[in-house]
Each structure stands twice: as C-alpha cells, then as structure tokens.
Amino acid sequence: MMSQHDSTRAVPSGDHRRLQAHYDRLWSGAIGRIRAGDIEADPVLAAGRPDRRRGLTVIARPGPEVRRRVAAFLGRLRAVEPNQHYYARMELHVTVLSLFTATVAPARFFARTGEYADVVDSVLEKAAPFRIEFVGVTVSPGAILIQGFCDETLNRLRDALRGELRSRGLGEALDERYRLETAHLTVVRFQARLRESERFAAELERARAFPFGATDMNTLSLVRNDWYMTRQIQETVKCYRLGGPFSEVSRR
C-alpha cells in the first residue's frame, strides 16, 4: 500500500498553499476552544455504545514510518488525556472517497456492492500512484487531524470516481456531509471532557509543523467500515495496485 520509503518531497506550491490555508482555518477556529476545554464530544463514543453505522469506502493507508511517528505523537497526547478515542496504527487512513455516507441502514447499498466495485475497478485501473506528505497537525472542536498534502492527482481521482458513480446511478449518497478535498488523517476524536486542556493544547502546538513523513500511495483498498474505521469491524472487499494489475481479496 506504499513504497518502501517514507521520505519527504515537496508538492507543488499552489496545492500546498491551498491545503495549508484550509488547515490553518480549522486550527485558528478550534485551538482556543480546546485550550479552554470547550470540545465537542462524539455522541456515539461518549455514550459508549456500539457504532451501528456502516459504509463502503476507498482508502489509502500511510506507510510504516508515518504510522510509527503518528503513534509516538498519540502516545504523548494519551499521557495527558487518556480518556479520548485514539486511532490504532492499522486504523490510520486517508479517505479517498466514501461511496456512500455511512448509515445505520446500509443494506440497500451493500446489496449493490458488486456494482460499486465495478465502478472502482473501471476508474482505478487507469489511475496513477500519488504521493501524500504528512506535515503538522490541525484541529476541529471534535477531532485532531494530521495534515496531509498532495497534488491534484488525488482530487482528480475523486472526481473520476464521483462522475462514474453518478453515471451508473450510484451517486445518491455521495458527499452528504461535505465534499472531501483534503488528504488528512483523523487520529483522535473527543469523547470526554478534557482534564488537562492547557497541557493538551501545548502538545498540539508543539506538533503544529512536525514532519510525520510521506508515503507513495501505490495501492488503495475498498473496505466496508464503521464511522471510525475500527479494525475489528473493517472488511477489505478489494485491493488495487495503481498503475498495474490489481488483485481481489476475499471477504472475511
């Protein structure tokens, strides 16, 4: 799912500036709230009940060095605030596209899994690999994100998937929450009141521009998932090697 090397290489400056401006807006709108303990707890996580929402998603996974650096960062956060929801290493992912927004009533969508997979097949067999740099963190009132930077290859791929889904009558539940244009990793979701909000914010500020590494995304996965990409629930439907033959993975 990645090259052997997780090194860093600059992406075109225009794309970088556009994405950085978006991440900066998120940061400036939420870091003060986090410092004051004014977070938005995820209602499902806060209630401690199982997540019944299910979706079908094309994802890219960061490479091992990126995962190692993110895990070390999360360890520092967990030492300050242990009661939040921290993503496990194998749950870290960039959402390429949710083929339908995760729902508590997924049966009618899952009944067309073969059709969804055919769309992904037709688009990804022509898709080129792309590179994502992971540099720094940003925040929202409900989550902590690792900033991802990519050129327009990723968004062109997303648009190709959207267009093909709609042309085949499968675009009904696309982009229901927002139109995805970034390449971030969601790494923490808030589920409880912050006990050490100022210390926690200070850890975030220290990582604001930290280089987590880069990954050449040569392989993508089509998965069934819950809202949090929980590893025990996630099922791989198919794996795709970009720029070459792809292989089907048997369902669990």
How are the SSEs placed, and which strands pair?
Elements: H1 13-35, H2 43-47, E1 54-60, H3 64-80, E2 85-86, E3 94-103, H4 107-110, H5 113-124, E4 130-140, E5 143-149, H6 153-167, E6 185-189, H7 197-206, E7 211-217, E8 219-225, E9 235-241, E10 247-248
Antiparallel strand pairs: 1-3, 1-8, 2-6, 4-5, 4-7, 5-6, 8-9, 9-10
Q: Helical region count? A: 7
Number of domains: 1
CATH class: Alpha Beta
Q: What is the SS-derived class? A: alpha+beta
Q: And the CATH topology?
A: Cyclic Phosphodiesterase, Chain: A
Rg, Å, rounded: 18 Å
Distance between the termini: 19 Å
Which CATH-level-2 architecture?
Answer: Alpha-Beta Complex
Overall shape: globular
Mean of all residue-level pLDDT scores: 91
According to DSSP, the number of beta strands is 10
Give me the side-by-side strand order of the main sheet.
Answer: 3-1-8-9-10
The largest sheet is: 5 strands, antiparallel
Q: H/E order of the elements? A: HHEHEEHHEEHEHEEEE
Q: Would you give an account of this structure?
A:
- With 252 residues, the chain is of the alpha+beta class.
- The protein has one domain: Cyclic Phosphodiesterase, Chain: A (Alpha-Beta Complex).
- It is 34% helix and 26% strand.
- The strands form two sheets. A five-stranded antiparallel sheet has the order 3-1-8-9-10, covered by helices on one side. Strands 2-6-5-4-7 form a five-stranded antiparallel sheet.
- Strand 4 and strand 5 form a beta hairpin.
- It starts with 12 loop residues before the first helix and ends with a strand.
- 36% of the residues are buried.
